[in-house]
Amino acid sequence: GAGVSQSPSNKVTEKGKDVELRCDPISGHTALYWYRQSLGQGLEFLIYFQGNSAPDKSGLPSDRFSAERTGGSVSTLTIQRTQQEDSAVYLCASSLVTGQSSGYTFGSGTRLTVV
Amino acid sequence: AQKITQTQPGMFVQGKEAVTLDCTYDTSDQSYGLFWYKQPSSGEMIFLIYQGSYDEQNATEGRYSLNFQKARKSANLVISASQLGDSAMYFCAMRGGGYSTLTFGKGTMLLVSP
């Protein structure tokens, strides 16, 4: 597609429920990244995909968080047994290559609210 | 480890004036890249400008320029002739030579008055 697409744009869920967040990167972009932005905070790195593999998932905050990418394209971030501290905007980004000068193209994010 | 520090939580500027947003970084890499992103209230992150550590000249993109002082490890963003549409959150970020991910600072909120 023309840009990075994330869905849903907003999600309200009850504490303890599981949620799935979807990211559709720009066609042909091999690198995909998930970040989390809590209110008034910077961007916290979660996981990075190169193709379908995740060479760096050091930012996942707990084992309740997992992510996968299939076909070198769409990625899904899953949060199990959601907690109130999971409330944040989850941003996905993609890039064509992973060279030093390659910036990201971001999606508009999914705003997750856990009540 | 890499670290980005943005010491200004908020900045206020009169329209048409220039404004400088501060960014300092810490890395042991010799080769790295520095980025600035803008995040308006809509939430999307917009790439503004890039500076490579070996670039001899400061990067410029329209009204944006990056004041790169390598010895001081600073990469300040200068916005000339500010406009109302510049009101947004601004993030400084870096990528080291051995890393594939960007490390972001906490951001600076810029408000431009008419």
Supply the key terms.
heterodimer; A: 115 residues; mainly beta; seven-stranded mixed β-sheet; four-stranded antiparallel β-sheet; 50% strand; globular; B: 114 residues; six-stranded mixed β-sheet; 53% strand
How are the secondary structure elements laid out?
The complex is a heterodimer of chains A (115) and B (114).
Chain A: E1 5-7, E2 10-13, E3 19-24, E4 31-37, E5 43-50, E6 53-56, E7 65-69, E8 75-79, E9 88-95, E10 105-106, E11 110-114
Chain B: E1 3-5, E2 10-14, E3 19-21, E4 24-26, E5 32-39, E6 46-52, E7 60-61, E8 64-69, E9 74-79, E10 88-96, E11 103-104, E12 108-113
Largest pleated sheet of chain A: 7 strands, mixed
Number of helical stretches of at least 4 residues of chain A: 0
The rough form of chain B would be described as globular
Low-confidence stretches of chain B: none
Largest interface: A-B, 25 and 26 residues
The protein's oligomeric status is: heterodimer
Strand content of chain A: over 45%
Distance between the termini of chain A: 33 Å
Q: From the helix content, strand content and strand pairing of chain B, which structural class follows?
A: mainly beta
**Over all CA atoms, what is the radius of gyration of chain A?**
13 Å
Quote the average pLDDT of chain B.
94
Number of strands of chain A: 11
What percentage of residues of chain B falls in helices of 4 or more residues? under 10%
> What is the approximate shape of chain A?
globular
Secondary-structure element string of chain B:
EEEEEEEEEEEE
Beta-strand portion of chain B reads over 45%
Straight-line N-to-C gap of chain B: 41 Å
In the predicted model, the low-confidence regions of chain A spanning at least 5 consecutive residues are none
Contiguous helical run count of chain B: 0
Helical residues, percent of chain A: under 10%
What is the average of the pLDDT values of chain A? Answer: 92
